[in-house]
Amino acid sequence: MIQMPRADVVIVGAGWTGLVMAKEIATRTPLSVVVLERGGPIRTTAQYAAGMDELDFEIRLRMKQNIAEQPYTHRRSSNEPARPVRQWGAYQQGIGVGGEGEAWSGVSPRFLPEQFELATHLRRKYGARLPEGLAVQDWGLTYNEIEPYYWRAEQMLGLSGRAGNLRGTRVPGGNIFEGPRSHEYPLPPHPYPYFAALFEKGARDLGFNPFPLPAATPSGVYTNPDGVTRPPCQYCGHCGYYGCMVGAKGTPGTTMLPLLRGRKNVTIRTHSWVRRVIHRDGKAEGVTYMDAAGKETMQPADVVVLASWSMNNVSRLLLSGIGEPYDPQTGMGTLGRNFATEVGGRTEVFFDKPLNAFIGGGALGNGIGDYMGDPPDAQVSAGVFRGGLVRTLLGGQSPIRAFGRLPPGTVSSNWGSEWKKAGLQWYDRQLALNSNATHFTYRQNYLSLDPTYTDKWGDPVVRVTMDWTDHEVRQSRMLGDVQVSIAKAMGAKAYSFKGNERPYDAARANDTHVSGGAIMGASPESSVVNPWLQHWKMPNLWVVGGSAFPQNESNPTLTLIALTFRAADALVDRYLKHPGALA
């Protein structure tokens, strides 16, 4: 095994959480920081500009992990065998420096205040009416504690938006259902394209309260508090699935790397596939990884930070034998529990005039918050206990991926000359309304290691045990009814809704927004990490990212960045001065 020189800090993963931690530690201390990334080298805006190829990026998923190298398995319950998923559907993960943060759309909402104390909130409000097997938990911190870090993340990203609750005062035109925020957004919202303007009018006519989506794509030239300047969004229509060709979108590459380049105390080592955290007597001693030549390498360090994708954080802890794996039969163990994704639904909406949908930006659009949080009493009586955001998202309608979306009953077959003719006719006359809703966590949904299937290095892959419950089906249909009502108010000529239905299909492109497995909380009996994302049983090990969420509400990126800033403050300002457990 190759032995590398000792570092003060080793960080596993060069996505949002990894590079935020690297930036905070390296710019505030003299410590040496090594960041290990399994993907390839740092990409530039010039490379992105030369590679805006829809087939390569949207269809072949160039910026995602090669699933042949690390598949995962899925089963719907502990009573059935798990099967390998060998083609990306759900749980797509980014790879390379910047990770999924390079190819995200930039939608950046805050979570609602009660999300951070959801178990307490639900028990107080609904009691015995809640679904069976519910495993939601409080986070170990409150909205008021994370609010300053939300603002810090919003400034770093340069979010475009409009406040709807400014220091407790509701502001028309913003999301009046959001938690109180201490500041207005750094930039004003983007102007609405035609489809969003139709949504705005239709939603208001129905009595809803539409607002512009908070976007990490600047509406104007922006310089953040770190002195990093970015140009405004160009509405090129190549955002989600792509890096930004002009460097406008808030990504790790446009916000963190300018502050890390040239620093002598930071090394970003690519093509480094981390396999284990090495530990002894309750202390992490470093990590082992396979280098670009396939040689096993040891990176010693005084502090280890796991900052990879949610399922990968959990996998490394399980493979390293750190923590007690969760057993759904007994309820014992914390590692792997509370796996969640995101509840949704999509209504295809068709019009009799062109929409110019090929123009767009990743987070361009608007939504309504009326069904976020606690649903109306009539829905509670029908067995729905949490709602979600209904929105448009106008990131650019790509001709390959969008071709062939037709009004119901248009043609009798999905191939042939009649289908092609109809596809050309309707290509720029259809878009969609979507929803993002809280996915409750349940005792039966969890992550573990598969006993049969392995990755490219022979390590067991993650096994996902998860199925929708009737609650997610009812949630999805509730929000689908709202989508359809707005579609009618917009003047749609036709519409078609598809939501969550049982059984859960992991081969379907559901979402990249997965969370849980190494959750945070107020005690080691119910969580893996403390409220500062420090491992309960190993004080020099930090586990940051979506794996810490006890349940997921919607787009998670802003929340995981805010939590990472908070973790970095705890590490720099408290742990380094007095190494040991912070809670």
Element layout with pairings:
Blueprint: E1 2-3, E2 7-12, H1 16-28, E3 33-36, H2 45-49, H3 54-59, E4 72-75, E5 83-85, H4 100-103, H5 118-126, H6 143-157, E6 165-166, E7 169-170, H7 194-205, E8 210-212, E9 222-223, E10 229-230, H8 252-255, H9 257-260, E11 266-269, E12 273-280, E13 283-290, E14 296-306, H10 310-320, E15 343-350, E16 366-368, H11 377-381, E17 388-391, H12 399-402, H13 417-426, E18 430-437, E19 446-454, E20 460-465, H14 470-489, E21 494-499, E22 541-543, H15 557-575
Parallel strand pairs: 1-14, 2-3, 2-14, 3-11, 4-20, 14-22
Antiparallel strand pairs: 4-5, 6-7, 8-16, 9-10, 12-13, 13-14, 15-18, 15-21, 16-17, 17-18, 19-20
Helix pairs in contact: 1-15, 6-15, 7-14
List keywords for this structure.
19% strand; alpha/beta; 583 residues; 15 helices; eight-stranded mixed beta sheet
Kindly report how far apart the N and C termini lie. Answer: 36 Å
> Which bin fits the share of residues in helices?
10-25%
* Molecular shape: globular
- Give the number of helices: 15
What does this structure look like?
It is a single chain. The chain has 583 residues and is α/β, with parallel strands linked by helices. The protein contains 15 helices and 22 strands. The longest helix is centred in the C-terminal third of the chain and has 20 residues, at 470-489. The two termini are 36 Å apart. The model has no long low-confidence stretch (mean pLDDT 96).
